[in-house]
Amino acid sequence: MAMWQRTQKVLWLGRDFIGARPLAWTLRAGHWFAFASLPKGLHKAGLASPAPDALAHAIKLRQSFFRGSDSGFAEIAYLPAGHSLRFGVEDRAPWIHRAYRPDERDVGTWSGTQDAAASKLRTLLDEAVRRRMPANMPVACHLSGGLDSSAITALAAKAARQCGARVTALSMTTVKPIGPAQLDERPLIAALLKQYPDVDHRVVHDALHIPGQDEDSDWPGGVIGGHDDQMMALAANAGADRVLSGVGGDEGATYNGANLYAALFRNGDVKVLTRELRSRARTDGKSLRATLYNRLLKPLLAGSLLLSRGRSRSPMDGMSGILRFVKPALRREILDRSMPPILQRNSPSERVTAFADHHIPSRCTYFSIMAARHGLAVTFPMLDRKVVDFMLSLPLHQFVRDGYSRQPFRQAMLGIIPDEVRLAQVKVGLFDERFIGYAQLKEKLLVSLEMLRASIDGQATIFDLDAIAAGLHLLPDAAQLDDVLHLGRAALANDTPPWLPLMAVESLIAASRLSRIR
């Protein structure tokens, strides 16, 4: 929404809560304030430079999404979802306001039973999906096999039956099973589709992101012809005008937090903790002693000398993580601009921040841009304000039951999604196939790196090309491909963290991108 108040000479811009439509702006002091739905409306019109914001690209590399208003362009900002902007002709900078932010004082205040919470959540999610269903038109849904997308697809299918509409489920999978069976999401997708045989299913396959590929001019790193682009095209071809996505579930409806058993201990919920640790041991098929150590003692002692065993292996570590691929002199500045860690202690502040001030607005913007290329909008039932407010109101002990986390959602979805999906404990993965693809391209990737190193832009890059080279060399050699086919990421040499060689490739792509943008 844009509104010009003629008498006050003030411009107002507004963007919806979930960011179904993007909105970008630029300010050239003393000359103009300009806005457009997409960044290319500004940089291709000469109202803003297309020059990249290199540090924002490094942040996106580390955290998957840009932070807040960052667009990847140095002179262009996004108005985040759920915000309004005011700019008058006498103003030096715009005033930006968020209309809706959950109140931390309301977090954890629900006093009902777990059964009542499950019943209410089921009703709220059903209503959230129905409100976003088009009238007598096809609708598309993301379907990964996880809890969030499976629930949205199932609820959409149930609602569509009542009005005779069609639902198309969009999945991205590997071409064939690779690695441990528990990492293959296809059996979970198949189970959901068996329960809802009237859902049309369309599949695209994971595609390698390589240096020099055409990228979206509105979202640096968004691959034209990539899996998200292909899924949006399939939705449009099915006659849909919108895609329902499960974004926001991890932070709310299917909340898993971090180290919930340790949080229960800190909160003094000893009765619940004792019961759930025993149940969790049975669910995991582990001894109570092992469960106590892994689920309680280890998180409580994290960071202490008792568990300190050399260098951190976390990709988020400021030195040995993904930022190892950035020149050391820039790491501190990148960390200062990055999104703060969230959901470490499950505090009210963290739980609110996860919705309001972290990666969700940028993630919604990404999908809105991918959809806009095909005349679609994306909508997010898990981010319905009633769902968000209710999930934030639940105290931590509501999130564990009968040896399972992600409650009361699992209980709420009883009979809605298959038990194979509803009770799955392992987060499915897609990336084992990428080790094979990149291993096959290893020599070409190293040649691309050396070409970048020899260029003027490569010499000036913010990336540490030696660190990228070391990461690329960790990719399996051609002689190891049979092992990778059988074992997946477990075939990596020297107990290499799986993210490390893949992020070396992504860093090479980012460095190549920044060297080509003018």
From TrEMBL:
Q: In which pathway does it act?
A: Amino-acid biosynthesis; L-asparagine biosynthesis; L-asparagine from L-aspartate (L-Gln route): step 1/1
Question: What's the protein name?
Answer: asparagine synthase (glutamine-hydrolyzing)
Organism lineage reads as:
Bacteria, Pseudomonadati, Pseudomonadota, Alphaproteobacteria, Sphingomonadales
**Domain Asparagine synthetase residues, every copy:** 120-432
Which keywords describe this protein according to UniProt?
A: Ligase
Q: Which superkingdom, per the lineage?
A: Bacteria
Q: What is its EC number?
A: 6.3.5.4
Task: Provide the catalytic activity annotation.
Answer: L-aspartate + L-glutamine + ATP + H2O = L-asparagine + L-glutamate + AMP + diphosphate + H(+)
Name a single GO biological process. Answer: asparagine biosynthetic process
Say yes or no: keyword Ligase present. Answer: yes
Q: Which family does it belong to?
A: Belongs to the asparagine synthetase family.
Q: Which GO terms describe its molecular function?
A: asparagine synthase (glutamine-hydrolyzing) activity
